[in-house]
Amino acid sequence: MQDKEELTTLVKVEARLNGEGFTEDFRIADGRLRSLNSDKSYGVEEVRIVNFFRFEGETDPDDMSILYAVECNDGTKGTISNSYGPMADAEVDEFLVEVENLGKKLNKTT
């Protein structure tokens, strides 16, 4: 585990996650998680949130973001980021909430 001080910026966390195999960059489009580097896309049932990291701007409270580390059912791992709070992208939030809720339902059945 790395020292908390080392994981205080988005860039540092992304670098660590890249080293752990989370190399794909994703966005949400048309209700699907889409790779920025290929033509792959995934529905909510094909994605699992592995971890997330929140960042707050030191001088501007509106400068808040969250970085998600996700893994897809074909083994593809990567990240997607979003603002949080009032500046959040609703489409990204909706998709990731569905992923999280589906994961909770699956955990109850096992």
Description:
By secondary structure, the protein is an alpha+beta fold. It is globular, with a radius of gyration of 14 Å. Strands 3-2-1-6-5-4 form a six-stranded mixed β-sheet, with helices on both faces. The longest helix has 20 residues, at 90-109. The chain has two helices and six strands, in the order αββββββα. The chain has one domain (4-109). It has helices at 10-19, 90-109, and strands spanning 24-29, 32-35, 41-42, 47-56, 64-72, 77-83. This is Phosphoribosylpyrophosphate synthetase.
- Could you tell me the strand content as a percent range? 25-35%
What is the total number of structural domains?
1
What low-confidence regions span 5 or more consecutive residues with pLDDT below 50? Answer: 1-5
| Span between termini | 29 Å
For the biggest sheet, the summary is: 6 strands, mixed
What order do the strands of the largest sheet run in, or round the barrel if closed?
Answer: 3-2-1-6-5-4
**How would you sum up the global shape?**
globular
Sequence of secondary-structure elements: HEEEEEEH
Protein name: Phosphoribosylpyrophosphate synthetase
Organism: Adhaeribacter pallidiroseus
Keywords:
110 residues; alpha+beta; six-stranded mixed beta sheet; disordered N terminus
In short:
The protein has 110 residues and is an alpha+beta fold. It has two helices and six strands, in the order H-E-E-E-E-E-E-H. It has one domain (4-109).
List the helices and strands and how they pair.
Blueprint: H1 10-19, E1 24-29, E2 32-35, E3 41-42, E4 47-56, E5 64-72, E6 77-83, H2 90-109
Parallel strand pairs: 1-6
Antiparallel strand pairs: 1-2, 2-3, 4-5, 5-6
Protein name: Phosphoribosylpyrophosphate synthetase
Organism: Adhaeribacter pallidiroseus
